[in-house]
Write a structure and sequence with these properties.
Two copies of one chain form a homodimer. Chain A has 257 residues and is an alpha+beta fold. Chain A contains nine helices and eight strands. Chain A binds a DNA duplex (30 and 30 nucleotides) through α1 and α3.
Chain lengths: 257, 257
DNA sequence: TATATCTGTTCCCGCCTGGGGAACGTGTCT
DNA sequence: AGACACGTTCCCCAGGCGGGAACAGATATA
């Protein structure tokens, strides 16, 4: 469940861990009850019971029929989170319109904990289905969004993230080590946009452009599609132009906020 | 902070309460640190510290600069929550298009814990600003969404919710007691849509139509605007037609899911 | 109707965990 | 240097929490 390079441990609180295990479980599988949860997590029913009570009182979960699901409060929290990130409205608008214009998948991502998290995603009409989903994370070395954001982070942050990185080859083209990565980052900085040439998923290519506020990078915007439609030429030409101008629009609108 | 009619208490876990107090606090005010949180909640720094560690490990919160904010993981959770509710895509599409068509505020809400929670909201170009926000809750007796949903809940559920209700007069028109409420619900069932005639906020009127799946109500869709534009005639004519046909579209598309 | 077997709930006990105080380390203002 | 923020760590001890078991309904099986 957690083969990730563990963070500094410090002191961690068991009850809270249990509570979030329950939440995680309910996220994956809604509508289950006390007994099922207790089995799944290896706790006694009474323990789970008091946790459910607590979470219910907090409106974190809701009793529905005979089972629980996550509460709508999370929608509220999510909208607060988006607001905290920066001017989300502009990003959303720009992503949506680019998706409509091109018909492909357009995403906006930011760095969090050394990974890329998708803040918003829009799919045009002939968009391919991908597994990425708003809020989920992907590695930085195998995605164009990740590499592009990484390229513009402060050098010490790059080092820090790169040090904790575990290069898992997702396809034949995936970057497999730091040297290769640093070269790639340099290339991105030179040309101003990042490429994913079937490095994360076979058959898919992406281009992405950085969105900066002054000198600090906020995130990146990318467009994704099948290699058949995304030829080398289009990727470095038309498509790169698209994401770069979209990034510009966002930058201009965020500048004065 | 919690003047609501308390639920059945049972046993509740203190650490988890503290954890969510921290989350709530960070939702309201991002970027604060250990000391500030400790002061605000009346706990020792060490206590707060271990909680923050736990939450950070869980990716619930993120350290940013010198302070914490809620993590993007919430976006993921939120999208799961929406999926669990029903076919959210259709709802979203229908709400958006109705908002664009009419230029006003359109919302979709469901009942949770005896209140209305907004699942989605879209504002057309000359939409008024309202305080409602996705995920937040409003009382059922003073909103058209609430009354409409309530009208189509099973009778025993209506009783249950009505019993726990505290009628707070928000404007001169707010419903102030059960008799009045039940009459209103009956009227809604007869005409098939609900009205809010400045009962929640002065100067604002709404119409809403129920969205059902077979006999169970899923939620309701509403349109909101200033009384100047929302005359009696338009409300019961054109605007009622709008929400009802939108509700129909949603019903037809959800039916086979 | 009785029996069995699922649920969810409650009770109580004893261990251990989590909350608090205080000391420590570090950086940033005077 | 000093003073005062901040976050972090350490340790203690009480009481909170996890767990087992008993209890209460609801549903199924005979």
């Amino acid at each position: 469940m957690s083969p990730q390079p563990n963070k500094r441990p410090g002191r961690t609180i068991r009850s809270v861990q249990i509570a979030f295990n329950i939440i995680d479980l309910l996220q994956e599988e809604a509508g289950i009850g006390v007994t099922r949860i207790a089995d799944e997590l290896g706790h006694s029913k009474s323990t789970v019971h008091s946790h459910l009570r607590t979470l219910e009182e907090r409106r974190v979960i809701v009793r529905e029929g005979d089972g629980y699901r996550l509460g709508l409060r999370f929608l509220d929290v999510a909208s607060h989170v988006r607001d905290q990130i920066g001017n989300f409205d502009i990003v959303q608008k720009e992503v949506d319109s680019l998706a409509e214009e091109t018909g492909e998948i357009v995403q906006f991502g930011v760095e969090e904990y050394g990974k890329v998290s998708y803040l918003h995603k829009a799919q045009g009409e002939h968009a391919v289905e991908t597994l990425s989903r708003v809020g989920t994370q992907q590695p930085m070395y195998s995605t164009s969004l990740g590499k592009t954001i990484l390229a513009y982070l402060p050098p010490e942050r790059i080092e820090e993230i790169a040090a904790a990185m575990e290069y898992e080859p997702k396809t034949a083209n995936t970057i497999t080590g730091p040297e290769e990565l640093f070269e790639e980052l340099e290339a991105i900085r030179e040309r101003g946009y990042g490429i994913d040439d079937e490095e994360n998923i076979n058959g898919l290519r992406c281009v992405s452009a950085p969105v900066k506020n002054d000198e600090t990078i906020l995130g990146a915007i990318s467009i994704t599609g099948p290699s058949s439609r995304f030829t080398e030429d289009r990727l470095h030409g038309e498509l790169a132009d698209y994401v770069q101008s979209a990034a510009n629009v966002i930058e201009l609108n965020t500048k004065f906020s």
